[in-house]
Design a protein that fits this description.
Order of helices and strands: HH
Number of domains: 1
Distance between the termini: 29 Å
Number of helices: 2
């Protein structure tokens, strides 16, 4: 996990310096956490992720 953090920081720094940098680590912790929160909020409203359309989700 620490390796991913260090790599992420280095790539973000390179982008801020204007370099064309792309990093695909295999795990995207930010979107996974965001999706979990959205799914939880939708569930409270009675909406299931499986039944919603991708564009509306």
């Amino acid at each position: 996990m620490l390796n991913n953090t260090i790599e992420d920081v280095l790539i973000r720094r390179a982008r801020m310096q204007g370099k064309n940098a792309c990093w695909v680590p295999g795990t995207d912790h930010a979107s996974i956490a965001t999706e979990a929160k959205v799914v939880r909020l939708l569930r409270k409203q009675g909406i299931k992720k499986a039944t919603s359309h991708g564009t509306s989700f």
